[in-house]
Fold:
Amino acid sequence: MKIISGTLKALGPGILFAGAAIGVSHLVQSTRAGASYGFSLFLLVIVTNFLKYPFFEFANRYTAATGESVLKGYKDLGNFALISFLILSFISSFINISAIGLVTTGLAENLFHTGIPIVSLSGILVSLIVVILVVGRYHVLDKMMKILIIVLSITTIVALIAAIQHGSSITPDFVAPNIWTITGIGFMVALMGWMPAPIEVSVWPSLWMLERSKQTAHKPSMKETLLDFYVGYIGAAVLALVFLSLGALIMYGTGEAFSNSGIVFSSQLVNLYVQTLGSWSKIFIGTACLITMFSTLITVMDAYPRVMSESILLLVPRMSYRKDILYWFWVIFLSVGGILILVYFQNKMKTLIDIATIMAFLAAPIFAFMNYKIIRSKSVPTEFKPPKWLMRISYAGLVYLISFGLLYFVLKFIY
Structure:
């Protein structure tokens, strides 16, 4: 019973990670991959999840072994490492919050037909999230995500079973697109950027782990920490394949393409499920998708301010007495900045998402190398260091991330 109790107390950060991952990268990018290229990118999704895996585990392993956040590990590498992470996170935070907010707002409008302008509606949603964070903070996030991930997983798998029974929708005169073009490679890079999540997100569970320990008064063992991580990571990876399959089975080869408008795209996404499950499912599926994206937006709006404030406190310790003020400053500042970017990109959803995901992929080797360095540091006891096989996968992962990044750079800026 003690083992079960400890495991249950440790569960939470991995689920929050899954909630952050199962958002735009799954509902949008994975579905687009299947709709545009069928099952051609199925193996790419598997390989990407496999080769990025070590760097996410390194972050969880580091915090379990040392009792410190990954940000502290970056600080120990030198101020340059932490400042680099802070700058890259600062840039990506606005774009990511805006991209997630745009999809969430589109789903809300599609479900409720409020008629409220998309910018105003996004402001209402963001304000609601701020209230939720003020009232509940980590406790609300933890409880909410455990329920929502289960709901989304069940509905999505049911939809996939129905889609398989439905069969392929390819028209007789359809000509398969060539993935090995500048456009195709650009899309692959965008898909990999947030698959299953940007590597910078590996920092977030380490902060949530420390918060969870305070909440439960339980310091999880390495085994408990990794189990929580496995649940979140493997679940996110499997659902990415499920969403890709839905796009491939329902939209690939039909001549229908996803719209660049957030509201129109959201309608198309919900209709994917309706075509497989029937018209009765529209409200049910629309609500599930909206709740999923809404919870992703909450997770992101908690994580980025938490990362920003913790990084600043590590760089300027004398500001520790202003920890709460820093957190709320970043919540408001990033929310306003995200909405301002959304104003410009409200009818360019795919463009905004591609920018966010490509930036994430090009920055991935930097974050991956930093995680590789901290797990090999002296602060991690020998018995908690990763096994040799995992280190070998990390070498392959670094080569993979750097090689694809260089390929994209050459094709985009030279040819």
About this structure: The two ends are 62 Å apart (CA to CA). The chain has one domain: 2-380. The chain has a mean pLDDT of 82. Residues 118-166 form the longest helix (49 residues).
